[in-house]
Amino acid sequence: MRNSHRPLRRALLIAGAAMLAVCSNARADELIVSAAASLTNAFKAIGEAYEQQHPGTKVLLNFGASDVLMRQIAKGAPADVFASADQKAMDKAVEEKVVDPATRRDFAANALVLIVPADSRFTPATLKDLTSADIRRVAYGDPASVPIGRYAQGALQAAGVWDAVSAKSVLASNVRQSLDYVSRGEVDAGFVFATDAAIMPDRVKVALTVPTQTAVTYPIALVEGSRHASDAKAFIAYVLSADGQAVLAKYGFKPAGAAH
């Protein structure tokens, strides 16, 4: 695989197709939740639990890179709730009046990790080891549109190896794609969240837990103009509740207050 930039336009088109697929048959009793890719497993479980407590509501989940989802909503794609993997994407959503800022809440925390294929013969002990000739390709999300990429860039810059490592980059359209690249051995190392690495323990191994320049926290908010504002607020409340937090903990997420 060549080092490559994956254009934001392509990511937007992919997310747009996914959003249309999710929303094409939406009914009045269906709640559309657009959430960061790293939340996929946890939010599927939360959605099922919420539906059990609210028999009249069907939760439709749309996952992708936070910035891409936000831009799709800004362009008019239906959504009721937006959950981001970093504060910057939510800040943009507030600036563009995509969400109601009064409903914004942090609901989870995570950690940045560096992973390698499970059968890798070289395991980096520091970020500087990524400059080694043993590491030819490094995957992470595009910093222009993917939170994991921004966290990785900040960490690499702090370690003084951004220029060297970015020259080896294979940019992913979201964190799960970065995980897939590593799990298939298509790259020598990659950056993901700790919760992502945990879903493939037999295919990837964590080389490092990486300190980040900003805490890895997840905000959630009501989408402006939602036609299901009451249900959307109830869903957000559920995510923040003891039951919702227990589901997140099951999938490895920490409480928002636990972020460093």
TrEMBL record:
Taxonomy, superkingdom: Bacteria
SUPFAM superfamilies, A to Z: Periplasmic binding protein-like II
The keyword Chaperone appears for this protein: no
Signal peptide per UniProt: 1-28
Example GO molecular function: tungstate binding
Pfam families cross-referenced by the UniProt entry: SBP_bac_11
Spans traversing the lipid bilayer: none
Keyword terms of this UniProt record: Metal-binding, Molybdenum, Signal
An annotated GO BP: molybdate ion transport
Coiled-coil boundaries: none
Subunit structure comment from the entry: The complex is composed of two ATP-binding proteins (ModC), two transmembrane proteins (ModB) and a solute-binding protein (ModA).
Protein name stated in the entry: Molybdate ABC transporter substrate-binding protein
Natural source organism: Paraburkholderia guartelaensis
